[in-house]
Amino acid sequence: MNDLSASSRITYGAVPVQPAVVRRIRGLSDKALAWLFITPTMVLLLAINIFPLVWTIYLSFTNYRANRANAPVKWLGIDWYQTILTDPDIWAAMQVTAHFVFWTVVIETVLGFGLAFLIDKKFRGHGVWTTIILLPMMLSPAVVGNFWTFLYQPQIGLFNYVVAFLTGRPASSFQMLGDVTLSPWAIVIVDAWMWTPYVMLICLAGLRSIPDYIYEAAEVDRASKWRQFWSITLPMALPFIMLAVLFRGIENFKMFDMVNLLTGGGPGSTTEVASITLKRAAFESWRTGYSSAFAIILFVTVFGLANIYVKALNRVKSR
Amino acid sequence: MSIANTAHSVVEPLPGTRRLAGSLVVLYAVITMIPLVWIVLTSFKSPDDAISYPPKVVFTPSLEGFCNLFTTRSRQTPEFIRTLGPPQGLCDEIARGRNMVVAGPSNYVPRFVNSLIIAFGSTVLAVALGTLSAYGFSRFRVPLKDDLLFFILSTRMMPPIAVAIPIYLMYRAIGLSDTRLGMILLYTSVNVSLAVWLLKGFIDEIPREYEEAAMIDGYTRFQAFVKVVLPQATTGIAATAIFCLIFAWNEYAFAVLLTSGNAQTAPPFIPIIIGEGGQDWPAVAAGTTLFLVPIVVFTVLLRKHLLRGITFGAVRK
Predict the structure, then answer these.
(1) What pLDDT was estimated at residue A183?
(2) Which of A17, A187, A269, A287 is most buried, most CB within 10 Å of its CB?
(3) Reported ipTM
């Protein structure tokens, strides 16, 4: 590269260039090249994302069952959509999902922003500690879910032991994963453990994007630290916080792997988030048409909510 | 003059604040590391130590977990074991201590190899496709560019289970069920959206003047792309590749629904390592530890680019 730019500088004026011809040939090849470069990706996405999506939409109007592939397929119209939207079990699953998404996002945002705020004080060794804190979010959610089931074991688990040690209650007196009231919180704890660093990292970028001179000006105006935090730090970091909330919200709305391994939706259906309901319908009771309709409803929900949210985010950004 | 001085020093946190912030962060880091350290410790425990109460922090290290991870064993009578020759290696010796003999290798190594093949295969494909498209989107006037880019991103909003339903049917129809090729294509399609978005950011940062200078020297556009842009984008391509690798390595939902034996990767396999009488926790912990080591290495390598990767290039620092 260095050789090339050096040589190009030397020969820059020496090469005879015929602008019109060159532009025409390049113009042509550029356009061809653009399509040549972009088409393979588009073909792959069409084959593996769009075609299946269209197929799902079609299936959602039929009574097709994947385990009875040869049975005659009947057109049902919007029956499944009506069934799903009036099904109390589906609404229960949506409530479980809402509880999970709401609390994980709140806890991760508060903890993540707090951590970012502290790390931004640039104490000695903050780089190393930041990298250590980031580790959980890089791990496989399935493997994480699985080893947390070990930590949550009522007799032998480390989590129960620590809680017992701190509160004095016997470690076998509560089951994080087997108890109807505790299990929704058990999955929130693991998700918060895993994803707080994610929010922290984005918030940290937000805090570092605030130029020093604004704080200097505030100091000159004798604004208190408290006032500086509410009038400078928080508003200026807000677009970043909102971005983190968006990504966590979408991801946790789709949550499957970690919860599937921690509780599998149980006990009963107290931790049955939407993706687990979907998996049960699609791959256990093989109601393909029904689950396709539910999948489309979920997709439209995520897509719609994300779009509304992005509009709000852009408004905050442009302020 | 003096105002400028104080103003500058005031923006810097006081030493006391700094120390307090530092100790709180260290406290969080230590607490958050406990589960991970615990898993690594458990992988070196004997089964009895692993399930003792209160949990043991000090214990005699044992390789039984790793042995159980890599082998299958069968229970035999002591009389039968006495008739056998000397134990074949350490694992056989440990197994015989429990009245068992090593019957053969477990499925962990094939699953791990599947993980490697599928992760690397899909990463190479996704990065290759992603680099080309990113360059196309970065440098050329493409009709409906923003719509296409948003479309690429929106493929990530589908819940994986929702994608898995038609993929399952499609793969069954064309014979890609439970094949490595099928999984590679699927992971490529998921990763390519990340690759395009990240790499477009990296390529946008390379000044166009470099290629233009090369083209004035007589390079074609394609040559300029290969000889000028690609070398400049190496760091970005490497960072993107690691992100793709991590995703494919960690993926579970597709793997558990679409593979059963042949192409199964490690994440769906590790949780079902069962010993006699329930889960064999030291073996599970050993499998987890080995599985996590590459990720820890990659995280340290990637730390400068993490932010970009996890936000699809939306935040660049």
Answers:
(1) 93
(2) A187
(3) 0.86
